[in-house]
Design goal:
The complex is a heterodimer. By secondary structure, chain A is mostly helical. Chain A contains ten helices and two strands; from the N terminus they run ααααααβααααβ. Classes of the chains: A mainly alpha, B alpha+beta.
C-alpha cells in the first residue's frame, strides 16, 4: 500500500470502494493479517480453511458495505463479520473450535500480568502459552471470545460490545467471569490468588 | 516474502471472485427496508401487546364488579375461571417478540436486557391503559366474539354463566309486558329461544324499570316448572355488558344489585306473601351474601 492509501481512514476507503470496486483491495490488504490471526485464535487453524473463511469474510464485507454503520468503527464491524463467519464455518463443517492459538510468549505474558478487570486474580508468570491454550479451550466459548478480543486483539470494551453484539456492561462481566473460569481451568500449581 | 505472496493471492482471489460472480454491494434501500421491517415488527408487537393489556384490563375491571355471588361460590374461583388467559398469553408472547425485534435492530444490542424488557412492558402498559380508557379493549373483545366462533368474549362468557335455568339464572328479553302496575307475570324469552311465563310479584321498582327497558337483561330466581316453562323472578339486572360504564358506576350498580337481592331476606320474614317470597329468601346467593 502506498503512503496515501495508508493515510486514508477505513471509512474513506469504504466510500471509495462503493464508487470504484478495485479500492476494495485496500481493505483486504489492511485486514487480511489481522483477521487471519483472529480466526486462527478462535479456532480455525488449518491454512486452507483460513483462506476459505477469509475469502468468505471479505466477500460478505463487500456485499454488505452499504450496511456499515458509521456510528461504529469499521474495524469492529469487520471483526463482527469475521466472528460470525467463523461460527458459520464451524456449523457448516460440524466441527468445534480447535482451541485458542496464542501467537507468542509476549502476549501470554501481557495477558497473565493484566489485572485491570480482575484485581483479585493474578496468574503465575510461569504459565506458558500452551497451558493457557489448553485452559482457554476448556472454558465456555462466550468467555473465550471476550478474553481473546480483550487481551489478544486488544479491543476496547465498546469495540467488543459492537463485535459480539452484547451490551457494553456485559463485556466487563464476561471478562471477569471468564478470568475466574480460566483460573479454575488452570490447575492450582500454575496460578495463585 | 511468503506472507506478501499470500496477501496478494487473497486480494486477487477476492477481487476476481467479485468480478466473476458479478457481486455487487446490496443497496442502502435493502438495509433500510430491513431496519424498517424490524422496527415495524417492534411497533406491531407493542400495539398487539397493548391491545392484549386493554382487553385484559377491561375483562378484569368488569369482572371485579360483576355479580359473581350469583354464579360462583367465591371470588377466587370466579376470577380463576374467568381470567382472560388468551390475552395474558398474547401479551407475554408480544413482549418476547418486542424484545427480540429490538435486539435485532442496528443498535439494539447495546441496551441491557432489563432495559429492553422494562421499556417493552412500559410501552405496552401505557398503550394498553390508553386503549382501555378509550374503550378499545371492550370493542376488540366484543367484535372478536361476534366474528370468531372459537373466541370466548366476555359477553359469551357472561351468557354462558347466566343462561342456566336449573341454577335460577336466565338471560334474554321481555316479550310481553303491560304497563299495569299490578301485573303479576310477564313473558320472558331467553337467549335459547325458550319463552318463560315469569312471576314478577317479588320484584322491586328498580327491577321493574329494567324490565320495562325492553333491553337485554339477566334474571335471577327459580324455575317453578319446565312443562310449561314457568319461572319465579327475584331480581332483574341490566345486561351491563352493553353499557359503557365507568368503574364508579359499575361499583354503584353492583351495590344496588346486592342490596335489592338482600332485601328479599327481610321481606321473607314479614310479608303476607310468605310462601312466594320465601323462594327468593332461599336462593343460594342469599346464603353467600350472608357469609360476606
Amino acid at each position: 500500500m502506498s503512503d496515501t492509501e495508508n493515510q486514508l481512514t477505513d471509512e474513506e476507503i469504504v466510500i471509495m470502494t462503493l464508487r470504484e470496486q478495485s479500492h476494495f483491495g485496500f481493505i483486504v490488504d489492511r485486514y487480511e493479517a489481522k483477521l487471519k490471526r483472529y480466526i486462527s485464535r478462535i479456532g480455525i487453524r488449518n491454512d486452507d480453511d483460513q483462506l476459505d473463511v477469509l475469502q468468505d469474510i471479505f466477500i460478505k464485507v463487500y456485499k454488505n458495505l452499504n450496511s456499515f454503520d458509521t456510528s461504529l468503527s469499521f474495524s469492529s464491524w469487520i471483526y463482527r463479520i469475521a466472528h460470525n463467519e467463523a461460527i458459520s464455518w464451524y456449523r457448516k463443517h460440524n466441527v468445534r473450535p480447535e482451541g485458542h492459538a496464542i501467537a507468542n510468549g509476549d502476549e501470554v505474558l501481557s495477558f497473565i500480568s493484566n489485572t485491570e478487570d480482575t484485581p483479585d486474580i493474578t496468574f503465575d508468570r510461569g504459565v506458558n502459552a500452551e497451558v493457557i491454550n489448553v485452559a482457554l479451550a476448556k472454558i465456555d466459548k462466550k468467555y473465550c471470545d471476550v478474553l481473546t478480543l480483550r487481551y489478544f486483539e486488544h479491543k476496547e470494551y465498546e469495540e467488543i460490545s459492537d463485535i459480539l453484539k452484547i451490551p457494553t456492561g456485559s463485556v466487563g462481566t464476561l471478562i471477569y467471569r471468564g478470568k475466574k473460569q480460566l483460573y479454575d481451568a488452570l490447575n492450582h500449581e500454575a496460578v495463585r490468588i | 516474502m511468503e506472507s506478501n505472496t499470500n496477501k496478494t493471492k487473497l486480494k486477487s482471489t477476492v477481487l476476481d471472485r467479485i468480478q466473476k460472480e458479478k457481486i455487487c454491494p446490496r443497496s442502502r434501500w435493502f438495509f433500510g427496508c430491513y431496519e424498517f421491517f424490524l422496527w415495524a415488527l417492534w411497533i406491531f408487537s407493542i400495539l398487539v401487546g397493548s391491545l392484549a393489556i386493554a382487553v385484559s384490563l377491561f375483562a378484569i375491571t368488569y369482572q371485579r364488579y360483576a355479580f359473581y355471588e350469583a354464579t360462583h361460590g367465591s371470588f377466587l374461583v370466579f376470577i380463576v375461571e374467568t381470567l382472560p388467559y388468551i390475552w395474558l398469553v398474547t401479551f407475554v408472547v408480544m413482549v418476547i417478540l418486542a424484545i427480540f425485534n429490538l435486539r435485532q435492530t442496528k443498535g439494539g444490542y447495546r441496551y441491557p436486557f432489563w432495559k429492553v424488557l422494562i421499556s417493552s412492558l412500559v410501552f405496552s402498559f401505557v398503550g394498553g391503559g390508553l386503549l382501555h380508557v378509550v374503550g378499545m379493549g371492550f370493542m376488540v373483545d366484543k367484535k372478536l366474539g361476534e366474528h370468531l366462533h372459537m373466541y370466548q368474549s366476555q359477553e359469551k362468557m357472561e351468557q354462558k354463566m347466566w343462561q342456566r335455568p336449573n341454577e335460577g339464572r336466565l338471560v334474554g328479553f321481555v316479550v310481553k309486558m303491560s304497563n299495569e302496575s299490578n301485573q303479576n307475570s310477564i313473558n320472558f324469552k331467553d337467549i335459547r329461544g325458550i319463552e318463560w311465563e315469569t312471576n314478577i310479584q317479588n320484584l322491586f321498582e328498580d327491577d321493574l324499570i329494567v324490565l320495562r327497558s325492553g333491553k337485554k337483561m339477566k334474571i335471577l330466581g327459580q324455575v317453578i316448572s319446565t312443562e310449561p316453562h314457568r319461572f319465579h323472578a327475584c331480581g332483574v339486572f341490566p345486561w351491563m355488558f352493553e353499557k359503557n360504564m365507568s368503574i364508579k358506576e359499575l361499583s354503584a350498580e353492583r351495590r344496588a344489585v346486592i342490596d335489592r337481592i338482600y332485601q328479599h331476606k327481610d321481606h321473607g320474614s314479614s310479608s303476607e306473601l310468605k310462601n312466594i317470597i320465601d323462594r327468593c329468601a332461599e336462593l343460594k346467593v342469599m346464603k353467600r351474601l350472608e357469609m360476606m
